[in-house]
Design brief:
The protein has 457 residues and is α/β, with parallel strands linked by helices. It has two domains: 2-241, Spore Coat Polysaccharide Biosynthesis Protein SpsA, Chain A (Alpha-Beta Complex), CATH 3.90.550.10; 247-456, Four Helix Bundle (Hemerythrin (Met), subunit A) (Up-down Bundle). It is built from 18 helices and 13 strands. It has helices at 31-41, 55-64, 84-89, 109-116, 155-160, 175-190, 202-208, 227-241, 247-259, 268-288, 291-318, 323-350, 356-381, 385-388, 391-400, 403-406, 414-423, 427-456, and strands at residues 2-7, 25-26, 29-30, 46-51, 70-75, 98-102, 105-106, 123-127, 138-142, 145-150, 162-173, 211-215, 222-223. The strands form three sheets. A five-stranded mixed β-barrel has the order 8-11-9-10-12. The chain has a two-stranded antiparallel sheet with strand order 2-3. A two-stranded antiparallel sheet has the order 7-13.
């Protein structure tokens, strides 16, 4: 997949002398830097940047933050006309799957991941909760299929189609749909429609190929057109992206800084491999059964969780995030947790515990394996919490509990519960809890994922 980033515009509403909107800084990073980082995080490693206004400055920023991405620069010398010409400037890329993106949108990575991995080959992000003030590109359609898009839908359009919400400005097209779209662009330009926005071609595209909506309801995003938008992006939108880090993440980040680990010559996937070895060592110590070995296991299990965070932090810092890396991380987590549940039962049995403990351990191991298997299946099939994110977590963080409590009641902090039970030698209650809780988790997860995905369709 190739991302086409439209960054040629002047951005007149930002005021005289303002830099291009994609160079505006939010949270210390430019919109363009954030866009490239987000693309890498969802597995898109090739981008075409269409420049115009302040072309060299925009290109320089892109090269500075490419970090392993293939970024090609294409110039639109007629950037003061319609954005249709910017898209036309990138027509040479219309031979593969495409992701067409406006460069002035601050969008959380989870939303882009939702679009990139949508089961629909042609899809666009639409916010059903957005206000219609006359400035928004409103998508109209039937069900989840888009049929029209315009800023001010006529009464006739509203009678024949349902207003679905505001387009965020990102469109995914399959290779099969890219060629009809290229022909539409060519036809409009040859007809003299050089002042058009690229969205004005979309209605005919929707009639040529089916395009479906991926809902962005409730996600914190914003299109930056004015200085007030920039203020809102900094003060209101960005703080919603990531809650305060949980205890494990704080400890992991302190280790990265204090030990200088981010500078070590090791790849994120190598760190994931090390976490696998540490996790299996923790399971082997736990299977010994004797209390000193259990204490060692607790230390190793906690270290496994910290290293498991390091690989992602290093990947994002170096621009090495990849889809394979995310799958490798999930596989390692599944192996270690499954082995740990079984090792707990083996250790108790070695101490003279009754044989039924091994049965309970087998139930716990199967449940833990299913937790990760169900997560992998939903992610692979493009639905559920693994793709859309867990909306209930946002609910906890917005008032049901104090924020510092809410951010620590996550799977990332699961290790502290395990460590506490081991150090207090509450292994039997822990084993029973794992046997029951692991099965409740995957059943509830699958049910909620399915219903959440259905609601977004």
């Amino acid at each position: 997949m190739t991302a086409i980033i439209l960054a040629a515009g002047v951005g007149r509403r930002m005021g005289a002398g303002a830099p291009p909107k994609c160079l505006m800084r939010v949270g210390g990073r430019s919109l363009l830097q954030r866009t490239l980082e987000t693309l890498r995080s969802v597995g898109v490693t090739r981008a075409v940047l269409v420049v115009g206004h302040a072309a060299e400055a925009v290109a320089t920023e892109a090269r500075a933050h490419a970090r392993g991405m293939g970024v090609a620069i294409v110039e639109n010398p007629r950037y003061r006309e319609g954005a249709i010409l910017s898209l036309w400037a990138a027509r040479g890329q219309f031979t593969t799957d495409l992701l067409i993106m406006d460069a002035d949108v601050l969008c959380p990575p989870a939303l882009l991941e939702r679009l990139v991995h949508s089961p629909h080959p042609n899809a666009m992000l639409v916010d059903r909760q957005s206000d219609d003030t006359g400035e928004e590109q409103i998508v109209l359609g039937r069900g989840a299929q888009a049929w029209h898009i315009t800023k001010r839908p006529s009464d006739e359009l509203r009678r024949t189609l349902t207003p679905l919400g505001e387009s965020i400005g990102f469109l995914k097209l399959s290779r099969a749909a890219a060629e009809p779209f290229r022909r539409l662009l060519e036809s409009k330009i040859q007809s003299g429609h050089v002042g058009w926005e690229h969205e004005q071609v979309y209605p005919e595209l929707f009639r040529a190929v089916p395009v479906y909506c991926e809902w962005a309801d409730g996600s914190p995003w914003i299109e930056i057109d004015t200085p007030d938008d920039l203020r809102r992006a900094e003060q209101e939108i960005l703080p919603q992206w990531a809650p305060a880090p949980c205890l494990n993440r704080v400890v992991a980040q302190a280790g990265l800084r204090g030990l200088g680990i981010a500078r070590w010559p090791m790849t994120p996937n190598q760190w994931t491999g090390i976490s696998l070895l540490v996790g299996l060592a923790a399971a082997a110590s736990l299977a010994d059964g004797r209390y000193p070995a259990v204490v060692l296991s607790a230390v190793l299990f906690q270290a496994f969780y910290i290293i498991d965070i390091w690989d992602g932090e290093i990947a994002r810092a170096r621009g090495l995030s990849s889809r394979w890396g995310s799958w490798w991380d999930l596989i390692v987590d599944g192996i270690v947790h499954t082995a740990y549940g079984w090792a707990l039962a083996v250790g108790l049995h070695r101490l003279g515990g009754p044989p039924w403990l091994l049965g309970v351990g087998a139930v716990a191991a199967v449940g833990l394996a299913l937790d990760f298997l169900v997560t992998a299946v939903t992610k692979l099939q493009g639905f559920g919490l693994a793709v859309y994110g867990d909306a209930s977590r946002r609910g906890w963080a917005t008032g049901r509990l104090p924020r510092w409590v809410a951010v620590n009641l996550t799977n990332e902090n699961f290790s502290w519960l395990i460590v506490a039970c081991l150090l207090l030698d509450l292994r039997r209650p822990l084993l029973v809890a794992l046997a029951a809780g692991s099965h409740l988790f995957w059943i509830r997860y699958l049910w909620r994922s399915y219903n959440f995905a259905q609601a977004r369709r």
